[in-house]
């Protein structure tokens, strides 16, 4: 990583508190952690990029098309997805789209997207003048030229970013062929970047998921288990978890609409399973099934040691027209109020006191931080709190998280940072923002004499590197 | 506006962040916007004041009686509305009431009311010693004397405040006679202050409104449409919207208990309409009718171009005794939890992707800022976010709004400031607070190197003057 | 209190804002209030400590065992309650437990528990090196030795802390024998520490309370009233309230799951009472009964003048295994979303406008501060807002409270600080934190020219000493 070589887009002191004494402490703390390896335990990059190691095609395919943070903002301001060529397999006029993006770059003022992009522009591509209509072509040419070089191949960037480990997020039906290739490569002395799958069973445990019944059937083909029965279905899931583990997985991930859990009798669960696979279950039964499956997954985690991540509270595909035309993940998922205290009770009553279990909770409803999540994580041995997620992976979002969580749950019931990104080039930028914000938060505690600077030094390393490795068993 | 002539009540640096470097930036930003014209697109002043241009009667009628922020605080501390002569057509003992107010002025420490009042006291009346029991009579005499002068007539104040445009809020049954008079005056070379009506149809679209059925009937008389039928009723509303437009209206306003919308078939809607006008509809049907009417209003906005404002979430007239004795708007409206994600879905599924539609959302439930409103406005082309409303039209309220909204929705999905006031003299004070708070917020972003100062200069003008004119089509 | 004698654990400027000008103001404000007497109107210390004046047994019994803030954090990080000897009548290996605690003391970084403990360690025991595995034994010996001295007897500490008045929280069935002893002692020229009971009727008004029916019967034995009838039951409660008043009580306290109130007819109430005492009432009827009892308590408060405190919103005993094994108050009470606007309406419609009634509201759902509590308290004469409670009795919690409440409710609808503690030695520490945070908050308002420093001086005294005495009638 080239650091500090230019000052136009990025200031050395960016994101630190303005007060001089506090800033000086933040600077010292940050200097101690800025070069620590990146541990990325949760994200949405593709193992195939690294398995195949092909160049990224062009600036639009890299920065605009895959990043719903980018195109949702443009869309909100009246730019159509057609104009942006979103959803097209091949971009017909990348330079035109890039100019459109560039001329609206001012819309991102005050957003984390702007921080991440500027970081990539300057640190990776050496660009130091702000992106705008005037600089659009220069940017395009510079980026396109560099993308064609060996230094910008996925593996080279992975190494340059200082990534120690990177987890992807994968369907239980995924063959993980790319992960297997990468593993073989490493074992046979080839490129050794550590890239792990994560078991995300939603397609096969959420009855509302497109193709749920077919997915359950597919599970059978993959495992040889009879997934027409409740017991066979559970065995098939356990088998897939085991397969993921053989390729390095240390965690599962669950993206349910709510945090609801359930603890049904085996008979009730079996009957419910029959209803959901037969498609006779209504919305309430589907919700109950998802709830039961969280508890089943916790049970399996206790057996196989996979860390469990719960990401609840997103209303998916809110915009019906966009969903009909473009499908999922088009920037139209909107958070909803999310309760944890009653929702998690069935699971916690069953497994909450197990010290060998780790359940990491995330939220899109920040009201839960101080009211529910910190009190729960500050009591139950199995619970930890994931970092601010999605819209809250931002300077203000991180500040609210630390301010609302720390006093009740402490620092040690949190698990460091997740970049959770589809945009590979944003990874170092996002980790840099998190490190700076943590340095600033700790600096304030030091400046207000709430902790000593020596403690802050120790904590800053834990928040950057120690806690994530321990929580995710990396 | 006399500025800076005295220092006792108002400090030149008030509301700016204390940190010296940040404050210096805030000062520079504020200096660039402090004298921009006032655009007031939403409020509750009366067109009649300007049409008739009569002097305001006395200090109590000006500062105490119309301002529920003032008397609700006094009431909460044990002063009866009788003692304050609230609700009387003519105040019997204005000096006694003024003294009562003055001797309790300390109660307003830390509130925005105090900021607004001090601004008016000093900037308009030249008073520089704090209002208290000791200064009560001096204040009274000074204010009363000035109110009798030509400089304090409504039109003179309007001009002195630098108001470019001022919108009132009006019943669909209102003849708008005062607006018509003002328009004639302007056209015939008389006073040219630009004062526009806003179409607020609640009395005729909310079945729970006092006299709803009679209001629907009155619509018929005003428009010649048969409002006993669903179609005629809709035509009558469209006709009134058109009439408002002829007098300059650019917006509608909707003060529903919730943000619920609906998208019924024409038959269902017609049957529901019959139930609500016949008075046979229960609470759930009344709510459904209001919900349907928001969607109908959006449809009409798409046709006639009126900007749509939705102000949901106030539990009106919470205090039954006060309501029974004094009626509406007596400081006893209390916010309630308000959801937007599911509530707005029917309207958004129908019109959410229309770039020609503008729907401005407000909230009294700040938890919606980061969880629902910013994500929605950062995606849907028709949505914009109104400024912090009512209790949150305050320094801390504005800070929370910017901190919780900007990172997801950006600045350009917001619409500048609303003063939303019944207290005419508070208008420059309120806009001044907003300008200072925006300058301070932007200054922090600059000091933390999150945006450049040049960008902040541009943004400060947009937040003060550009965005409001564009969003409200002024 | 020894102040400023050491600097290792506590910095003189701790908790003040870092910005130099603001900090200087905070220091001046704090200097004016740091030595004011402690008024503690709500807490959970035991009158018996002072009645018997026996030494506290050992460091673990003093600092670890009674403090669920301490052991919940240790438990959340995998230390079992067995290892901590929680729940044992006598600690078998206090030094071993102390070492366990000491070696995990780093977990409390960033929490208020750490602030309180460090205060006690330094200010009371003269310890100035941080507690850790290395210093564990030195701490143990020092504390144990001092606890054996006359200076560390409960009454001596009470006097040394500068406590003017201390309220306990007591069952309506409590004989208050210890309070009676203390009162006799004072009247006969003995120790004169002012310790008052508080009437907490939950065991006899909440049908979900363990032993509710037996408690109602016990009320009869204590009062001679026939508590098998609704009227007799109410008379019995009134009699107990009267008895508490004779021993100095000025307040009641109500820890219901929600803030729901009701205003049933006498017949309905009598029938409901019959159902709950007979055990035939379901959950909804039990909730309705609690709701009705809040209104009954308000009625009695209007008669006997006792100030009413409502502490709603805690889901008690969330951890079923811990509850089954250890019982109540084991750190597993978790907050839940709590509504006030509709919940309080029945009580407020009945008594909300009574100036002679004082109802102090608390919350564990901070979203209610700006949305519901401040608007309600800023209108209803009977309502006041209690300080941030439990998990929010913390620097960030206090900041959020002031920032979210003050602009709408002002300072004068709040009631100063509650320490609400079972940990006697934390009382001066907790009040010190509150004084520092209030000084810092007021200093910011002064630095931002929102109030004058003279006003801040006055307010700082009110927030520390004046408002609590007035609100609680002390």
Give an overview in words.
- Three copies of one chain form a homotrimer.
- Chain A is 50% helix and 6% strand.
- With 474 residues, chain A is mainly alpha-helical.
- In chain A, strands 4-5-8-9 form a four-stranded parallel sheet, with helices on one face. The first copy, chain A, has a three-stranded parallel sheet with strand order 1-2-3. Chain A has a two-stranded antiparallel ribbon with strand order 6-7.
- In chain A, helix 17 (367-377) links the parallel strand 8 and strand 9.
- Chain A is globular.
- The model of chain A is unreliable at 1-6 (pLDDT under 50).
- At the A-B interface, helix 4, helix 15, strand 7 and helix 18 of A face helix 16, helix 17, helix 18, helix 19 and helix 20 of B.
For this structure, the CATH topology of the largest domain in chain A is: TIM Barrel
Sheet bearing the most strands of chain A, described?
A: 4 strands, parallel
Poorly predicted regions of chain A? 1-6
- Give the fraction of residues assigned to helices of chain A: 40-55%
Helical/strand content category of chain A: mainly alpha
CATH architecture of the largest domain in chain A: Alpha-Beta Barrel
**What is the subunit organization of this protein?**
homotrimer
How do the helices and strands line up, and which of them pair or pack?
The structure is a homotrimer of 474-residue chains.
Chain A: H1 20-33, E1 38-40, H2 47-52, H3 59-63, H4 68-76, H5 94-103, H6 112-124, H7 136-147, H8 154-160, E2 163-167, H9 177-187, E3 195-196, H10 202-205, H11 212-223, H12 230-246, E4 251-254, H13 266-278, H14 283-304, E5 307-310, E6 314-315, H15 320-326, E7 334-335, H16 345-351, E8 359-361, H17 367-377, E9 383-385, H18 395-409, H19 427-447, H20 453-471
Parallel strand pairs in A: 1-2, 2-3, 4-5, 5-8, 8-9
Antiparallel strand pairs in A: 6-7
Helix pairs in contact in A: 1-19, 1-20, 6-19, 11-12, 13-14, 14-16, 17-18, 18-19, 19-20
């Amino acid at each position: 990583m080239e650091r500090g070589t230019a000052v136009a887009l990025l200031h050395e002191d960016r994101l630190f508190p303005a007060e001089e004494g506090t800033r000086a402490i933040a600077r010292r703390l940050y200097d101690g952690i800025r070069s620590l390896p990146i541990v990325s335990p949760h994200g949405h990059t593709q193992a195939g990029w690294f398995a195949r190691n092909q160049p990224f095609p062009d600036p639009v395919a890299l920065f605009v098309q895959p990043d719903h943070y980018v195109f949702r903002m443009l869309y909100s301001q009246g730019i159509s997805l057609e104009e942006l060529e979103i959803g097209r397999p091949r971009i017909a006029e990348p330079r035109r789209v890039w100019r459109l993006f560039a001329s609206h770059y001012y819309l991102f003022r005050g957003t984390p997207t702007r921080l991440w992009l500027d970081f990539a522009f300057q640190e990776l591509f050496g660009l130091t003048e702000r992106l705008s209509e005037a600089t659009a072509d220069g940017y395009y040419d510079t980026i396109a030229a560099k993308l064609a070089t060996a230094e910008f191949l996925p593996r080279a960037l992975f190494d340059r970013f200082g990534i120690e480990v990177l987890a992807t997020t994968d369907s239980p039906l995924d063959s993980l062929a790319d992960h297997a290739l990468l593993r073989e490569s490493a074992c046979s002395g080839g490129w050794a970047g550590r890239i792990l799958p994560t078991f995300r069973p939603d397609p096969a445990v959420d009855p509302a998921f497109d193709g749920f019944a077919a997915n359950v059937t597919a599970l059978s083909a993959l495992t040889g288990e009879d997934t027409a029965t409740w017991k066979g279905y559970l065995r098939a899931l356990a088998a897939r978890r085991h397969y993921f583990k053989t390729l390095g997985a240390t965690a599962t991930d669950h993206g349910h609409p709510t945090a609801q859990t359930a603890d049904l009798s085996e008979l009730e669960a079996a009957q419910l399973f029959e209803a959901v696979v037969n498609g006779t279950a209504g919305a309430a039964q589907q919700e109950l099934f998802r709830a039961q499956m969280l508890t089943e997954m916790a049970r399996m985690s206790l057996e196989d040691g996979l860390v469990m991540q719960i990401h609840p509270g997103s209303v998916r595909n809110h915009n019906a027209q966009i969903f009909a035309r473009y499908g999922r993940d088009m920037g139209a998922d909107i958070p909803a109020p999310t309760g944890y205290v009653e929702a998690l009770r069935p699971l916690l009553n069953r497994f909450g006191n197990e010290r060998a279990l780790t359940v990491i909770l995330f939220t899109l409803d920040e009201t839960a931080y101080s009211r529910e999540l910190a009190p729960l994580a500050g009591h139950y041995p199995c619970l930890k709190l994931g970092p601010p997620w999605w819209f809250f992976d931002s300077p203000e979002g991180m500040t609210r998280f630390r301010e609302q969580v720390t006093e009740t749950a402490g620092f040690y019931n949190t698990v460091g940072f997740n970049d959770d990104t589809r945009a590979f080039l944003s990874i170092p930028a996002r980790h840099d923002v998190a490190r700076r914000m943590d340095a600033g938060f700790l600096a304030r505690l030091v400046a207000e004499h709430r902790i000593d600077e020596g403690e802050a030094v120790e904590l800053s390393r834990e928040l950057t590197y120690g806690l994530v490795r321990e929580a995710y068993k990396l």
